[in-house]
Design a protein that fits this description.
By secondary structure, this protein is mainly beta. It is built from two helices and 14 strands.
């Protein structure tokens, strides 16, 4: 196993979770966008969202781990993944809320020449958020970012800048929960009286993230690689750690 340096193995991002009933092709979603001060100061560590949905065929699943929020079009050609971070997608296929398999994603280099390596799905030597290790297994897929890698019948991977799919009317959010609004800038001047009626009328909500990008890790693979013993109900979540 290859370890990150001890000071970096403390684990800094808690999972953004999602549970799915793959066989029935229905998903139950959960999300948390409250970040720690450390994550706020280091956007490369900020996992914005995790998604799972059916793949190109009924026997495949697509997993998406997004990070580094609010990348502007001007930054799209300069922002890349952090080679000092371990990106993981974790899978519970026994119903005990503990990962049984993981997909580990790492990066080497920076800029346009950055390379991605994907290991797994494999049984992790360390479970939980602390002391995670990079497996000694050879990568199953590797290559340049911003490129579709792998095969359509096996594991396919894309890692690079994509449009942020999350929708939030941030102005209205800060009107409803004024304790979350910033203390400087235009949003700081919003009224501080919380009220449920502050929601905009249907069809009038403004997507604050429109035009902004994120760094996406997209992996499509056969669902059978994640399930076990015929159990089609699995739990999925993502982590980013040092």
């Amino acid at each position: 196993m290859n370890r990150f340096p001890r000071t970096a193995r403390l684990g800094l991002a808690v999972a953004i979770g999602i549970a799915g009933v793959i066989g029935a092709r229905h998903l139950a979603h959960a999300s948390d966008h409250q970040d720690t001060a450390d994550v706020e100061l280091n956007p490369s560590q900020d996992m914005t969202d995790f998604y799972a949905f059916p793949g190109a065929t009924n026997d495949r699943i697509t997993l998406v781990l997004n990070s580094w929020p609010v990348i502007t079009p001007a930054q799209a050609n300069t922002v890349t993944f952090d080679p000092n971070l371990l990106y993981q997608i974790k899978v519970d296929n026994t119903g005990d809320a503990v990962e049984d398999k993981v997909l580990q994603i790492t990066f080497t280099g920076t800029g346009a020449n950055q390379q991605v390596q994907v290991r797994g799905p494999l049984v992790p030597s360390v479970k939980g958020a602390m002391q995670n290790e990079i497996a000694s297994d050879a990568p199953v897929v590797m290559g340049a970012i911003n490129t579709v890698l792998g095969t359509a019948s096996g594991i396919q991977v894309y890692a690079g800048v994509r449009d942020d799919p999350f929708f939030i009317d941030l102005e209205q959010f800060f009107r409803i929960l004024p304790d979350r609004k910033p203390v400087t800038g235009s949003l700081a001047a919003l009224p501080s009286t919380p009220t449920a009626s502050a929601f905009r009328a249907p069809g009038q909500a403004v997507d604050f993230l429109a035009g902004f990008n994120v760094l996406s890790i997209v992996i499509e693979l056969p669902t059978a690689m994640l399930t076990t013993g015929g159990n089609t109900k699995i739990g999925l979540w993502g982590t980013i750690s040092r």
